[in-house]
Specification:
The structure is a single chain. With about 140 residues, the protein is of the alpha+beta class. The protein is about 45% helix and about 15% strand. It has 2 domains: about 5-75, Arc Repressor Mutant, subunit A, CATH 1.10.10; about 90-140, Ferric-uptake regulator, C-terminal dimerisarion domain (Dna Ligase, domain 1), CATH 3.30.1490. The strands form 2 sheets. The protein has a 3-stranded antiparallel beta sheet with strand order 1-3-2. Strands 5-4-6 form a 3-stranded mixed beta sheet, with no helix packed on it. The chain starts with a helix and ends with a helix. The mean pLDDT is about 90.
Length: about 140
Amino acid sequence: MNAPVERVDALCQLLRERGERLTRARRAVIDALVASGDHLTAEQISTCVQEAHPEVHRATIYRTLDTLTELGVTEHSHLGHGPAVYHLADELHQHMVCEACGDVTEVPTSLLRNLGKRLRNDYGFVMRPTHFAIVGQCRECATD
């Protein structure tokens, strides 16, 4: 992974290369996600952004998250019954969530590559595996 400043710069450059504007809200959301290094809910992102930039309205932050997701800069995932979480799309990964203890494990997206090819070939379906978590039981809970 890049250092935080380099990562922010690379993501901002990606927006510019795509002809997109780098607004204060977009930069603030990217900064919050990079600084966190974790998956955050929209509410958590909003709190982080407003602490650093109180002039950025909550509604603007939510619209910015939608826009950054449409542009492929962020991705949101559903890890269970709670709210969706956001993370940066420059390091995509699949989530496995233990339904017994709630542990979340990140695995490479290549894990489902063969399934994706089969779904496309057999059904003409293109899956987005990172949108939802794979739910089951982790090693510790499965052996109890």
